[in-house]
Amino acid sequence: MSFEIKNAIQNGKTVLGIELGSTRIKAVLIGEDHVPIASGSHDWENSYVNNIWTYSEENIWRGLQDCYQKMATDVKQQYGVSIKTVGAIGFSGMMHGYMAFDKDGELLVSFRTWRNNITEQASKALTELFNYQIPQRWSIAHLYQAILNHEEHIANISFQTTLAGYIHWKLTGQKVLGVGEASGVFPIDLNTRNYNQTMIDQFNELIEPNHLPWKLEDILPKILLAGENAGVLTEAGAKLLDVTGELEDGIPLCPPEGDAGTGMVATNSVAKRTGNVSAGTSVFAMVVLEKELSKVYPEIDLVTTPTGNLVAMAHSNNCSSDLNAWVGLFDEFAKAMGMDVDINRLYGTLYNLALQGDSDCGGLLAYGYLSGEHITHFEEGRPLFVRSSDSNFNLANFMRVHLFTALGALKLGMDILLNQEEVKLDEILGHGGLFKTKGVGQRIMSAALHVPVSVMETAGEGGAWGIALLAAYMINKVNHETLEEYLSQKVFAEKAGMTMSPDPEDVEGFKQFMKRYTIGLAIERAAIDYLK
């Protein structure tokens, strides 16, 4: 088998996917059967600079290069050959945010990530103007907020894009985005699979009094659909990605996509009535709709699949960050006691303990709001753990309440879709860090959403694998083969998964917890107001 893989590497029959997530940049190289054959990753964290969550350009490139190099080293160690070329490459990144450039391609202000809840004024005004939900983290909300703030750089904008769009542009020279990624920049017209022209006209009219030297359509990236060619790796781009100079130019790239779209692809959730939930630093559920929603909901975002079908998205800014911090505290305690505990074993032990707790967490309450949370209308976050004198305070309930609260805001958003809009879901596919400990995150997610949750063996591969599959689809599709057909027949036909149905006791316990969670939001508000 390794001989066949070695041949595929040498003959450029592999495909590379790289995703820049919130805490990790990951590269996955797949073979002709779409199975990962090598990988590399680089851990990184956002910085909070001048009240902005950001990543520096230096860290973006250093991280990307390190990630690529580790993947290339993995190839050399496993197969004894160097990577000189691949069949195709795809780049993905955390969606939304704000990257604005001048005519010389220089970044005008530091990258503002999706995590910033600083565009409330713009978000409300645009939602009202378009009669279409414009969340705070969307690129257009960031742009309009900067205009409202009379920021100096606005007049100098020549191009605005996302993190994935930025990487793709620097490596290919092409200012493009995949439609799924673009749907988190500006609303999409489902008929044209392009930016909504009526809304573009409305926006241009809105900003006319500012006498800016550009119109919105001049500065946005061009939209491409899954399967379309998005340019090739330039000579300069190859040197930028692979600092050793071994990688050759001329490799085709697929349209850059967002982590929402790659999550859909990695879980085979691009067809109608399917959904997936990605649970890591943030948590979001994506449901591919059969029809449009009856009205605008501030808690629900509308984006698209990489092929341009409508998707309802319930997105919570906070999921596992506070949970990870508590596990880190237990790790510190173990080391202080002279015990060297494997971190995966520690997570597994603590997560499994949560399943032994009281169904409603014994009356405990927690909020893992490290940053603001738009579903519950908080502009900042204050992680909290609260209990009353008669709560059943033990380690099992402590872990259980932190796992429950990681899904609290998401639950409020999903209730709108499943109860008020009566959206039909056959099952949800889970992926991301929360599902690494077998059976725990899955069981709690199933209880929260009251729907069967499946986790595939490939779920750990995540978005880097998803964007690699999109790049493979671009070069391998035949005739008019759709992405849905390609994934179902050529990628997932024999992939095994484990499905878990909701446990009635867990469902009831989660309901009780949510009553406490909703009432207790006043405590979170007080913490934000008084704990500066």
Round the Cα radius of gyration to an integer and report it. 23 Å
Major pleated sheet: 7 strands, mixed
Number of helices: 19
CATH topology of the largest domain: Nucleotidyltransferase, domain 5
Numbering strands along the chain, what is their spatial order in the largest sheet?
Answer: 16-17-15-14-20-21-22
Instruction: Report the mean per-residue pLDDT as an integer.
Output: 94
Summing up helix and strand content along with how strands pair, one would put the structural category as alpha/beta
Envelope shape? globular
Number of strands: 22
**Ends apart, CA distance between termini:** 59 Å
Q: What fraction, in percent, of the residue positions are helical?
A: 25-40%
Level-1 CATH class name of the largest domain: Alpha Beta
CATH architectural type of the largest domain: 2-Layer Sandwich
Number of domains: 3
GO molecular function: kinase activity
Protein name: ATPase
Keywords: Kinase, Transferase
Family: Belongs to the FGGY kinase family.
